[in-house]
Amino acid sequence: MPLILYTCLLCLCTSGLWAIQAEDSSAVSSTESHHRGLAPTNADFAISLYQHLVASAPDGNIFISPVSISMALAMLSLGTCGHTRTQLLQALGFNLTIMSETKIHQDFQHLHQLLQESDTSLEMAMGNALFLSHSLHPQESFLADIKRYYESEAFAADFQDWARASGQINEYINNKTQGKLVDMFSEPDSPAILILINYIFFRGTWEHPFDPESTREKNFHVNETTTVTVPTMFQSGSAKYLLDSVLPCRLVQLNFTGNGTIFLILPVQGQMDAVIAGLSRDTIQRWSDSLTQGPVDLYLPKLSISGAYDLRAVLADMGFADLFSNRANFSAITQEAPLELSKVVHKAVLQMDENNVKKVADPGVTVKQESEPVTFNFNHPFLILIFDDFTWSPLLMGKVVNPS
């Protein structure tokens, strides 16, 4: 019988940086290392998932929360057995000969706590929940494990009444995110007896807000034949930037109050595919190490974009094939009925604006410009990478093809 996994994301104005900084290893305590224990594995999975998803929809906007998806799949592994569990964890990037399953879940437990607690100035709510047919009785050991490691719960639902069941799920997500995620779950197009929901909401505030009075309607060139008009924010001041000599792109790094950083990457027109193909942990490391601080004139579209993705085909290509076949073994959830994962649906919303705060008197850092500012005009397709500084978690990866 079908099992459906939904993940939901709402990002308001953006936040986070996992830019891997070069650090003196002697200065990094074991506690600090523990903060970032999952960073390499999660980053590799995030980039691979992003590249697969972009390849499957080359002409569309893409927004995903990779750390949210990793966490949901890791939690799902607690309900699997045998080869299904091994395949799932290996496809997430874990080497089970050097890292035990218990350690994996302990690290995700720690990561979840850090993302919830490490930055009081960052609004964030993330978690998982199970909704299963009231005819099923989940294993007590499974319920205990998802509670211990992922602070997750299971709820009975009547999936014969889809309107009521979807309303129950939406109400749960709405309550957990204090009304920030509303009506994110729609009725599945196929019957289900168990649905795993993963949600994440985060809101970042620009360290230096854009002045709404500087926002103007400007052209955005979707491709060679399509141009749209979009409200475009403007900011002039000191920022970190890079004119990349390796990949055909330029980028700006902006900060948020707290542990948030965003990379805005502008490929040379027509070179988007080359930049995406060149993404890796080493690339992000190089970008972080090579940034220059200087005067920048920044033109950035004001965004409000949503999308939904069925990740089944993408995940199957990435090594999760057994999850979607009759070989799947979910007997750790329940032995009453054979379960098969029918969907992994990820829903994402991105809203990026000036940050309409009451006081916009401080538009940024004022610098004595001894040289002409470098202009970054994001008026054609670009990439967005948002990270949490403290844990190096990839909170959001996006591709903006059409901001309208």
TrEMBL record:
Compartment(s) where it occurs, according to its Swiss-Prot or TrEMBL record: Secreted
Pfam families reported for this sequence: Serpin
UniProt keyword list: Glycoprotein, Lipid-binding, Secreted, Signal, Steroid-binding, Transport
Entry's Gene Ontology BP terms: glucocorticoid metabolic process
Keyword Ribosomal protein: no
Serpin domain segment(s): 47-403
Any GO CC annotation of this UniProt entry: extracellular space
Chain segments annotated as transmembrane: none
InterPro entries: Serpin_CS (IPR023795), Serpin_dom (IPR023796), Serpin_fam (IPR000215), Serpin_sf (IPR036186), Serpin_sf_1 (IPR042178), Serpin_sf_2 (IPR042185)
Function: Major transport protein for glucocorticoids and progestins in the blood of almost all vertebrate species.
Name of the featured protein: Corticosteroid-binding globulin
Organism encoding this protein: Chinchilla lanigera
